[in-house]
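Before the break, one more example. Copy the sequence into your notebook; we will annotate it together after we see the structure.
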Amino acid sequence: MNADGRPLVLLVDDDQDFLVQMSTRFAHEGWRVETAHNETEARAKLATVRPDLAVLDLMMDQLDGGFTLAHEIKQLDPRIPVLLVTGVTAETGLAFERAGAGSQSWIKADAVLAKPVRFEQIRRELDRLGVRHD
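Here is what the structure looks like once it is written out:
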């Protein structure tokens, strides 16, 4: 939580339209927003801020960039909720079950959502995870 009492979300995606759309929605919901276009920018942000939530694209500069970044965030602070968003399901048919359960425990994210993702889906995941977002 920031000094002004607003939670901070880190949005990481190489899709500028997604960043603008999600930034607008999170800001409207009372979040402070930091964005990054790739893993390198995200790591630079993480060196100076600790988000209350991270929303990461799965495939950016590296095909597994979101997985790697999620793992790094959880190493920094395992309490930071991490949501992975991905278009891989639409492109390949490969679907991920809810992260953290059973055979999917290798995914260091709290949820994996398929793109296109609506903000309402993210809000439901935040509710499920008990993340304050008011």
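Residues 8-92+108-114 form a domain with the Rossmann fold fold (CATH 3.40.50.2300). The helical segments are 16-28, 39-46, 65-76, 88-92, 119-129. Try to locate both features in your own notes.
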